[in-house]
What we know:
TIM Barrel; 17% helix; eight-stranded antiparallel beta sheet; alpha+beta; Jelly Rolls; 14 helices; binds beta-D-galactopyranose
Amino acid sequence: MMKFWRKLIIxxxxxxxxxxxxxPFNVTYxxxxxxxxxxxxxxxxxxxxxxxxxxxxxxxxIAKAKEGGAQVIETYTFxxxxxxxxxxxxxxxxxxxxxxxKLVGSSGLFLFLRIGPYVCAEWNFGGFPVWLRDxxxxxxxxxxxxxxEEMQQYVTKIVNLMLEEKLFSWQGGPIILxxxxxxxxxxxxxxxxxxxxxxxxxxxxxxELGAGxxxxxxxxxxxxxxxxxxxxxxxCDGFKPNSKKKPIxxxxxxxxxxxxxxxxxxxxxxxxxxxxxxxxxxxGGSLQNYYMxxxxxxxxxxxxxxxxxxxxxxxxxxxxxxxxxQPKWGHLxxxxxxxxxxxxxxxxxxxxxxxMLGPQQEAHVxxxxxxxxxxxxxxxxxxxxxxxNVASVKFRGHVYSLPPWSVSILPDCKNxxxxxxxxxxxxxxxxxxxxxxxxxxxxxxxxLFRNGPSLISKSWxxxxxxxxxxxxxxxxxxxxxxxxxxxxxSSDYLWHFTRYTIYIxxxxxxxxxxxxxxxxxxxxxxxxxxxxxVNGQLAGSGVGRWVQVFQPVQLLEGYNDVVLLSLTVGLxxxxxxxxxxxxxxxxxxxxxxxxxxxMNLSGSSWIYQVGLKGEIQEIYTLEGTxxxxxxxxxxxxVEHPLSWYKTYFDAPDGMEPVALDLRSMGKGQAWVNGHHxxxxxxxxxxxxxxxxxxxxxxxxxxxKCTTNCGKPTQVRYHVPRSWLKESNNLLVIFEEIGGNPxxxxxxxxxxxxxxxxxxxxxxxxxxxxxxxxSIDGNIFINDTTxxxxxxxxxxxxxxxxxxxxxxxxxxxxxYSIGSCHSSNSFNVVSELCEGKQxxxxxxxxxxxxxxxxxxxxxxxxxxxxxxxxxxxxxxxxDVL
Length: 880
Ligand code: GAL
C-alpha cells in the first residue's frame, strides 16, 4: 500500500515538473561556443541511450548525470526500434523518446538529440530497419532516391514529434542541439561523388525541417557552412572545425569501449580520460559529450555486431546497473566543478593565450581585459604532456609540480583546483550478493544446492526444440538463400534442411581408414554462427564473419538428413554498403572426404523455416508458456542442444539491481516474465593480452587496460527490477548447445567496499571555491584544507575497516599501517563516518590531533564497508 502511494506521489511530482522546463530561449552559436539565450556556454554532456535501460531507471541515471556535473544529456534515436514495420511507429516503453526528453527537461538539463538516422552505436544494423533492404533499388547512405525518401520521412517524424510536444528550447523544451547522419566522413570516399551530394542533401533537408536549433555532423570535414562539424575520438584537443565561424565540439569522448563475445573487457583509466577532457577545454573546446556516461544493456536482440555482447557497460562512469563506477564518476565530477569555476573566463575570450612552460609543458590562459584596460577574471590550464616524468614549471611567479600526462586547472590563475592525475574520489568495489529472501514455492523437495542459496530454482522444466522443419510456413527452394532475405531479422534463427542419399561403399570405408580422412561438411563462407546437425545429432558449429567451415560428420548408408541452423548474432552496424552485407552462407556447401569425390549440396532442394518453434509460439510469455508441453527436468539430465528451460523464481530482497548468472549455460537467449533480457554466450576471452597493471600515462586505445583474460566475457545479465515481481517470476531460456540450468543463480549488485586516499597536499574541495566571495570578477579560495569524501548507496551505511593518517602502505583491500601513523586515525574517521551514508573528513594535522611525522607529506587512507542499514528502505534505481 505504502509503495502504491509513494509511486503515485512521485508520478504526480514528475507530472508537475514536466509542465514547465525552461523559459523559452534561443540557441545559436559563434566561433567560441553555443549561445544559450545569447550567452556563450561551456557544456558537459552525458551520453545515455534511452532504450538501453528502462523508463523506471531513467530518472535515477539522469539525476546521477546531473549530480556528476553534466548540463546536457545526449542520445541517438533508434530508427529500427521506432519504425519496426514500414509506416508503423513505436514510441512505447523503453522507446518512449518523448518521455525521456521530458524527464531530461524536468531535471533542468538540456538535451542533444542525435537523430542519425544511421547511428552505428553497436546497435542492430546501425539503427536501420531491416525492411529498408527490401525497397527496390535502395542503396543506403548515398544519393539514392528511395533511401533519401525513407530517411527524410523518419527524420521529419522525429522533428515533428519534438515540435508537437514543444521540446525545442525556443518552445520552452530542453533540446538545444541536433545531429544528422553519423561519422559519414569515414566512408564518404567509398560512395564517390554521390556521397558528397548525399551529405549536402542531408544537411539541407535537416535544417529545413524548422527545428530552430543548431545541427551538427560528426567527423564530416565537408559539412556545409550552416552545420557544425565535430570531433569523435579518445582525444579531440587538436581538433579544428572546417570554418573559423564554428565552435569546437567533441560529440563522442570514448570513455571506455564495447566488447564482443569472447573479447576482453576494456577499461579507460580516469586519469587519462580527465586529461583528455581538460586538454580539450584548455585548447579552446566548448562542448564535450561522454560516449557513454551510462551505457546500459542491449536488451532483446538490439545489440549490433556481429558478436557484440548484451552488456553495454562501456566502462562508463555509471555502470550497467545504474551504480556509480568509482573513482571514474567522482573524479570527473571534480573535473566538471573545476571547469565550471573557469567558465566565465573561458567564454570571455575568443581564444586563449598560449604560454610555453617547457619542452612538453604548456599553459593556456583565459583572461579578459576589463573596463579601463585592467585585466580581470583569469583562469589557466597547465599541462604536462610528457608521459613519464613529473615536471616542475614556473607560471606567473609560482612553481607548480605537474605529474606526467596531466593538466592542472587554476580557476584564478594561481591556485590549483584540480589535477587530472590526482584522484581524491573514492574507489568502489561492487559486491554481488545472493540474498534470496525465501525459498521458492517449489522448494519443498529437498535438493542440494551446489553453490549456496542464490541458485535460482531447484525445479526446472524442459522442452526440446525440434531439429529442422516443423510447420507449414516452411518452403522449399533449390539452392542457398541469403539469410536476411528470408528471416528479415524477425528471428536470429534460420533452419535449412536437406535430405541426401549416399551409398557408402566398401571403397569409402577403406579410403577413410587408409587416408585418415573422414567425411566432412564444408561451407565456403558463413557468418555469424551455424549449428550443423546430421541425422538429428549436433555434429558441431561454425562461428565467424565470412569464414570457412569444415565440420567432420558421421554419415549413414542411405539417406542422411542435413540440417543447418544458421544464426545472426547482431547485424552489422559499421561500414559502407550495409544493405549488401546480409548473413548466412556464401559459395558452396559440400560433403567432402568421399571416395568418389565431393558432393555439392548447394544446388539441392532445401527446405527453409524461419525462427524456432518456441519463439513462434512465444512459450516465453506468461500466456504462451501455459500452452506448451513442458516436462520435468531431472537434476541428472544430460545436457542437450536446442533445449528450452523454464522455472519460476523469487526476486532477491531489496531494491538493488539484480542479474542472472548464466555461466553454467552455453549459448542462447533468456526471457524474464516475457521480457527478453538478451542473448547470452559463455565464450571466454583469450588467455593472454590483459595487463596486470594499468598505467594511465600515454595515449589510450581499447587494447591498453583490458581485464578478464581466460574468463567468459559476460556471465551476468541485468534483469531490471521493474520487470520482476516479488515471487513467481517466469524465467525461460533457450539453450543452443548445452548447459545446466540448475546452476543458474540470481544476485543483487551493490557497492560493498569503498576506499579513498587523499594527501595533505591534495587540492582543496571544489566546493570551497563556490562558497568564496567574488571580488572584481575574480574568484578566491581561503580554506585550502583537503577533504576526503566517502559515500555509500542509499540504504547503506559506512563501517570503517581501516584508517591511517600518515604514510600508509598498500592499496584498496591491501592497506597496512606504515612507520608514520597517527594513532587517532581510526577513531577520528569512525567518529565522523560510522553508521552514516556519507561523510567528509578533513585531511590535516589539526584534524588528527597533531603531526605524526614532521617534514613528510601525510596521506589519509581509508577503507570501509557499506553495510545495509535495514531500518532505512533503499530508494534505488528503478523502484517506480
Ligand atoms: C563511433 C560511433 C558510435 C559508436 C562508437 C564506438 O564511431 O559514432 O556510434 O559506435 O564509435 O562505441
